[in-house]
Automatic annotation (TrEMBL):
Record protein name field: HAD-IC family P-type ATPase
GO cellular component: plasma membrane
InterPro entries for this protein: ATPase_P-typ_cyto_dom_N, ATPase_P-typ_P_site, ATPase_P-typ_TM_dom_sf, ATPase_P-typ_transduc_dom_A_sf, ATPase_P-type_domA, Cation_Transport_ATPase, HAD-like_sf, HAD_sf
Ranges annotated as biased composition (Gly residues): 450-461
Region Disordered: start-end pairs: 450-480
Keywords: ATP-binding, Cell membrane, Ion transport, Magnesium, Membrane, Metal-binding, Nucleotide-binding, Translocase, Transmembrane, Transmembrane helix, Transport
Main location: membrane
Record lineage: Bacteria, Bacillati, Cyanobacteriota, Cyanophyceae, Nostocales
One GO-annotated biological process of the protein: monoatomic ion transport
Entry annotated with the keyword Nuclease: no
């Protein structure tokens, strides 16, 4: 068992194993050299070269022969081998260690790149797992289980309560609530009935549905999300393209200069060939961009460690620096700026009733409901004394009613409750209007005359009674002879995070030029949340691909754009953004895998800390690059003028590397 697992791990993480082996062999070889065990050292160090440098050599040679280009991978191998050859020639064996260190740095870089690619593949697999593999096809009145890939346009399928919807389709019979969090990210399920579209990967509620497939399964919304994530994650940003162009130009320059330095001086300057080769090899050592590499990675790794201590997980070191360049930020609403948990926001009783009366009566019928609003009401009434009603009927999109103490209980929207009461109190209508303008969902509660306080007892546990979801709902029972009266109303809302407004203010102070909110929720609710947190620009009623398009438009205007989200629906936008940021607790698996940064414990205020770290990292990296380039230029000039020998060149080269490394460690504070 364990040998098999070890073999599988080695295959999947060969780059990591190679880097580890290279480092171990390097340490053992250096120790052997220190003990004057030259034979052992000359066995261990070449092995470190071979194991750590194999992948870089392969990629460098592939680029050379197939693309006719030079890159830094090949340059590093040449520089390392040059150092080794020079060390053997001059019997300065410590130069072999210098070359091995150079190879180890590149081996570690390759391992990190492989890790990032594996994370990307896992995020795609997580998206694919959102849809079931089979569907229940209706054929000649009988149900038949078939693969999703076999579905065709025009097929009719059945989805039972609690099942995932297998593909995008239109409801032809039945009604239910659909949890569309996978697509829109919104916490409230949506009522769906005949003629309305449902999406693959969304969760069916209490009702069975007959659906008609109206487009091929491979064209479903969730499949488009997968393709968008794949495309956005493989597209290289302009900065990455610039770095690659610079690396190849640098490699060509160094190789050309090395060749010229190894051949021309005897003819132009009268050098002897031994001096010429010596200077050329010294050039390869001092021109190696170790200090340039150390100017970046230690700084970014220090920033990553600093962020981890503060609950900020940077999954990609380059994104730490990018975070400091962000000019625009897009926020998802539900689960990001808000908690994502629907709850009772306010209870307003009618005259002669209390808040407890309203909650108890509402809970008697909502206790048998699977709707998120009902669950929020039951949770708010958990400490009160009540039992479930009987003969409960749920009317999708309108409300719910039942019998409690022989009193009729009606809970729902204003239009629904108004069918059973003489009139709605004017003062409560005014309250309801204000709450709705604030983006709250208002639930009215009514009960038969004399029902005040009677939610405290009853005939026993109620049961859920509903008409068949595949047929038309049965007529409602006629109003009770005792005319019901309104007890009050309950406002339901997704609570805004306490730190959201302060975070937006802090980001503006850090120089973010544009902050927008993206949400699949309705415009009124979105505007309400945006106003509460201080965001002026809102994009509402968006599908995942719409969020992606907004990010692309922002990138055209502001170049470096961050996206903060938590849901599957945010994944394409997170992948497309210059830097994607996910909420650690509220975030879906796909969002967490796709994002570059994760705010652990959902502490939104740490976003400003992450940006400040990014700015510091960007500043330190620039300082280190200046120092590294200055050393390289000085060493190159000194080598050409003959003022430095190989040991001094190595000391200068390694010294500059140590210096910029220590500079990068400043970010640990």
């Amino acid at each position: 068992m364990y040998p098999e697992r070890l073999t599988q791990f080695t295959k999947q993480h060969s780059d990591t194993v190679a880097a580890f082996a290279c480092g171990l062999l390097l340490l053992l070889g250096a120790f052997a050299l220190h003990l004057n065990l030259l034979g052992l050292a000359l066995l261990l160090l070449p092995a470190a070269y071979a194991i750590g440098g194999y992948e870089s050599a392969r990629e460098g040679l592939t680029t050379l022969f197939k693309e006719k280009e030079l890159d830094v991978d090949l340059l590093m191998i040449v520089a390392a081998l040059g150092a080794a050859g020079l060390g053997l020639w001059q019997r300065e064996y410590h130069l072999i260690i210098d070359g091995a260190i150079l190879i180890l740095i590149f081996a570690i870089s390759g391992a990190l790149e492989g890790y990032a690619m594996r994370r990307t593949e896992r995020s795609i697999r997580s998206l694919m797992s959102l849809t079931p593999d089979i569907a229940m096809l209706l054929r000649q009145g009988r149900e038949e289980e078939i693969s999703i890939s076999q579905l065709k346009v025009g097929d009719e399928i059945v989805v039972k309560p609690g099942e995932l919807i297998p593909t995008d389709a239109v409801i032809v019979s039945g009604y239910s609530t659909i949890n569309q969090a996978a697509i829109t990210g919104e916490s409230l399920p949506v009522e769906k009935t005949v003629g309305e579209e449902v999406f693959a990967g969304t969760l069916n509620g209490y009702g069975a549905l007959k659906l008609k497939v109206h487009q091929p399964p491979e064209s479903s919304l969730i499949q488009r999300v997968i393709k968008l994530v794949e495309q956005a994650q493989t597209e290289e940003p302009p900065s990455q393209q610039f770095i690659e162009r610079f690396e190849r130009s640098y490699a060509r320059f160094i190789v050309l200069a090395g060749v010229l330095l190894a051949t021309l001086p005897p003819f132009l300057l009268g050098w002897d060939w031994e001096t010429t080769i010596y200077r050329a090899l010294t050039f390869l050592v001092v021109a190696s961009p170790c200090a340039l590499m150390a100017a970046i990675m230690p700084t970014l790794l220090s920033g990553i460690a600093n962020g981890a201590r503060q609950g900020i997980l940077f999954k990609n070191g380059s994104q730490l620096e990018t975070m400091g360049k962000v000019r625009a930020i897009a926020f998802d609403k539900t689960g990001t700026l808000t908690t994502g948990q629907v709850q009772v926001f306010q209870v307003i009783p009618a005259s002669n009733y209390s808040q407890a009366d309203v909650l108890k009566v509402a809970a008697t019928v909502e206790s048998v409901s699977e709707h998120a609003i009902g669950k929020a009401i039951v949770k708010a009434a958990a400490d009160l004394n009540w039992v479930s009603a009987v003969d409960v009927r749920a009317i999708p999109g309108q409300g719910i009613l039942g019998i409690n103490f022989d009193q009729q209980v009606i809970v729902g929207n204003a239009a629904f409750v108004q069918k059973y009461v003489t009139n709605l109190p004017e003062d409560l209508q005014k309250f309801a209007s204000v709450l709705e303008q604030q983006g709250k969902t208002v639930v009215w509660v009514a009960q038969g005359a004399g029902g005040r306080g009677q939610g405290a007892g009853g005939r026993g546990q109620g049961e859920f009674v509903s008409s068949s979801p595949l047929s038309s709902p049965s007529p409602l029972s006629s109003p009770s002879p005792l005319s019901p009266e309104v007890l009050g109303l309950i406002a339901i809302a997704d609570e805004v995070r306490a730190e959201s407004a302060a975070t937006i203010t802090r980001l503006k102070a850090l120089g973010v030029e544009q902050i927008v909110m993206l949400t699949g929720d309705n415009q009124r609710t979105a505007d309400s949340v945006a106003q509460a947190v201080g965001i002026n620009q809102v994009y509402a009623e968006l599908l995942p691909e719409d969020k992606l398009h907004v990010i692309r438009r922002l990138q055209k205007q502001y170049q470096t754009v961050a996206m903060v989200g938590d849901g599957i629906n945010d994944a394409p936008a997170l992948a497309q953004a210059s830097v994607g940021i996910a909420m650690g607790l509220a975030g879906s698996d796909v969002a967490l895998e796709t994002a570059d940064i994760v705010l652990m414990a959902d502490r939104l205020e740490k976003l400003a800390v992450a940006m400040n770290l990014g700015k510091r990292a960007h500043r330190i990296v620039k300082q280190n690059i200046v120092v590294a380039l200055s050393f390289i230029i000085l060493l190159l000039v000194g080598n050409f003028l003959g003022n430095i020998n190989l040991p001094i060149g190595v000391i200068g080269h390694e010294g500059s590397t140590v210096l910029v490394t220590l500079s990068g460690l400043r970010l640990l504070k």
